[in-house]
Design a protein that fits this description.
Elements lengths: L3 E12 L2 E13 L4 E5 L6 H8 L8 E10 L2 E2 L5 H4 L7 E4 L3 H4 L6 H13 L4 H11 L16 H13 L5 E5 L7 H17 L3 E6 L11 E6 L2 E7 H6 L4 H9 L4
Parallel strand pairs: 3-8, 3-9, 6-7, 7-8
Antiparallel strand pairs: 1-2, 1-4, 4-5, 9-10
Helix pairs in contact: 4-5, 4-6, 5-6, 6-7
Length: 257
């Protein structure tokens, strides 16, 4: 199972005047085995929402002031940190933006894909699981010993996907997984994620500002603006008949679908 349910999530930032809400009363549902998109322009609060799921917010700056985040009925916000670590990576994995900064330049690609496996399951069999994850994302075996600077942007993004998949999570959160890539490679990465989600029967929460990338690849879409969900529904229904003016604007700006 991999059912994610966010209810009434509110996140505030600390500043000189106190706590300032930046994510307000956000609710969304990623049913087990489905693909869901969270879309909106940069600064809408999408990444903040995603980081809150794994409790990766900078605690000295960001505070969750309300709401619940449940994964298979377990309130993640109520878990002790030690128990929360068993969820990060092994049950819920996240692909971050900008693979050039997410990957360690002094470690080989294979070592970095193995890290998550070793952290949760030990060294035994870690290499085999890492190699299998890289095969699934269509990377050749010789890349295992290479370093990030020796790879193309698309290959680095596939390495990040392999690192997320290797421990075997049931929910994958992809935060702007195609940023910085050219249009052709963007489509290839999206097709890869869509195929993997179905083959591995994972749940997928895709975070992006590009509606054109989610049209045929997600079942449900949530539209976020200034920290709030302004529209949601089956993806094709929202695309065919958007109700909120902001959604209509995003669709007008999107590439031809």
């Amino acid at each position: 199972m991999s059912d994610l349910r966010i209810e009434g999530l509110t996140i505030a930032l600390r500043d000189a005047r106190g706590l300032r809400p930046i994510v307000r009363d956000v609710s969304l549902h990623v049913p087990s085995g489905t693909s869901v998109a969270l879309v909106g322009e940069s600064g809408a609060g999408k990444s903040m929402t995603a980081c809150a799921v794994l409790r990766l917010l900078p605690t000295e700056q960001a505070v969750i002031t309300g709401g619940r985040i449940e994964f298979d009925g377990v309130d993640l916000l109520a878990l002790p940190e030690e128990q929360m670590r068993t969820y990060r990576g092994a049950k819920i994995a996240m692909i971050f933006q900008e693979p050039s900064s997410a990957l360690d330049p002094v470690l080989s690609v294979g070592a970095q894909v193995m890290e998550g496996v070793e952290a949760h399951f030990g060294r035994r069999g870690a290499r085999e699981r890492a190699m299998e994850a890289m095969r699934r994302v269509e990377l050749p075996p010789e890349i295992f010993r290479r370093y990030p600077h020796q790879l193309s942007g698309g290959q680095r993004q596939r390495v990040l996907i392999a690192s997320a998949l290797a421990p075997g999570p049931s929910l994958l959160i992809a935060d702007e997984p195609t940023s910085g890539l050219d249009v052709t490679v963007q489509a290839q990465i999206m097709d890869l994620l869509y195929r993997l989600q179905r083959e591995l029967r994972m749940s997928l929460l895709l975070i992006t500002h590009n509606l054109g990338l989610v049209a045929q690849r997600t079942e449900t879409v949530y539209v976020m603006r200034r920290g709030e969900i302004v529209e949601s529904g089956p993806t094709l229904d929202v695309f065919r008949a958007p109700k909120h003016p902001y959604t209509q604007t995003l669709l007008r700006m999107a590439p031809t679908l």
